[in-house]
Amino acid sequence: MQLTWEQSELIAPFLPRQRGNIRLDNLAVVNAILFVAANGCKWRALPSHYGCCHSIYTRMSRWTRAGVLDAVFERLQRERLMRVRIEAVSLDSTIIKVHPDGTGALKKTAPRPLAKAAAAGPPNFIWLPRVPATL
Does residue 87 form part of some domain? Predict the structure, then answer.
């Protein structure tokens, strides 16, 4: 799923205008997003000819919040340049951090007494109450 320059002219009105020092043009970012969507790979597994994976992810995140990607994908599907159908979404459980109390393990409520008090050994200290000198 790669778009050509001619195909990218159809979605150009929906993409933000690029300003300043531009390392990645909008077409390269769209093609990188399509590559990740088609192959289901991680962003870090993106081939280097697309550019820096962090820059592409950051721009994709901004475009998603602004509604740019919705408009772009809708236009691409109307023009029958691509067909995308999301069937399932899954999360890798290694990215979800859970507190140990939330894992369902039994919680320790009180120390268990030993079977024999003598097995514990002699006490390490003796507490003696202080008697005031003025009695």
Answer: no
Summarised one tens digit per residue, pLDDT across range 73-91 is 888 888 777 765 656 566 5
Nearest to 75 by CA among 1, 9, 5: 9
The answer to whether residue 84 is domain-embedded is no
Domain assignment of residue 51, given as a range: 5-78
CA 38 vs CA 22, 48, 68: distances in Å: 26, 17, 19
CA distance linking residue 129 with residue 79, whole number of Å: 90
- What is the distance between the alpha carbons of residues 102 and 69, in angstroms, rounded to a whole number? 37
Residue 30 lies in a domain: yes
Query: What average pLDDT does the segment 43-57 reach?
Result: 88
Task: Tabulate helix, strand, coil % of the chain (nearest 5).
Answer: 50, 0, 50
Asked whether residue 101 is domain-assigned, the answer is no
Name the pLDDT band for 24 (thresholds 50, 70, 90).
confident
Looking at the 3D structure of the chain, how many domains does it have? 1
Q: What is the pTM of this model?
A: 0.58
Name residue 3's amino acid.
L
